[in-house]
Design goal:
The protein is mostly helical. The chain is built from 10 helices and no strands. It is elongated and about 60 Å long.
Length: about 220
């Protein structure tokens, strides 16, 4: 079960301190490993040091941090992403996504990483999972629609891309560069400024959502 440990875990503040200290140690070692070395032996030793520190760090995380500690796993995901450790970042965000309050945001982060890795379909799948989250804000929903539009453009799927950009335009015609993206995808489309939000448009969106968001 989540958080089922034989011993009482350390207070959250203590765990956060240990994690921060270990990440600082990794940050200090990384420049050493990447800097030019005088001999191949010293370069190899530095790389081993980084690998060993990171391996011990992950062991410490598994031992001290509950899977249900979504805040810590989210912070770890952000730290790993900044360090270029994409797979580790994705794993942490997926753990943090078990928290309904963070689910949407975490899947959006996973989608962003997958897109950076060139895994367009995986990024789309992650964005769709974010949209399926029970708890999400209007801003998060709009951002996911935009990211899905961009991802479908990269996938060479213009109709799907247009679908998401038009969903945004019906709610906020001035959102980012949606107006220009719609014009590029469909020059015959009515200008976004002429489209106003209305209940009927939202109802139609709901009817057709499943056609795209369950793929």
């Amino acid at each position: 079960a989540l958080g089922d440990y034989p011993q009482e875990p350390a207070p959250a503040s203590d765990r956060a301190f240990d994690i921060a200290a270990s990440l600082d140690a990794l940050d200090e070692l990384e420049p050493v490993a990447s800097a030019p070395q005088r001999t191949s032996f010293s370069s190899s030793a530095s790389e081993v040091d980084v690998d060993q520190v990171f391996a011990k760090f992950k062991e410490g995380v598994r031992a001290q941090v509950s899977e249900s500690d979504s805040a810590t796993h989210y912070d770890l995901g952000v730290a790993y992403k900044e360090m270029g450790l994409s797979n580790d970042a994705i794993a942490e965000f997926e753990l943090a996504a078990q928290d309904p309050a963070r689910e949407c945001m975490c899947w959006a982060m996973v989608g962003m990483i997958q897109l950076e890795l060139g895994q367009v379909q995986k990024s789309i799948d992650a964005y769709l999972r974010g949209l399926q989250a029970a708890q999400k804000t209007v801003d998060q929903e709009m951002s996911l629609y935009y990211d899905l539009g961009v991802a479908h453009e990269l996938k060479q799927a213009p109709q799907e891309a247009l679908y998401y950009f038009q969903k945004i335009a019906r709610r906020d015609p001035g959102y980012r560069d949606v107006r220009h993206r719609i014009a590029a995808l469909d020059p015959s489309a009515a200008p976004a400024s002429q489209t106003t939000p209305n209940a009927t448009g939202d109802d139609l969106d709901d009817v057709f959502d499943d056609l795209f968001e369950t793929k």
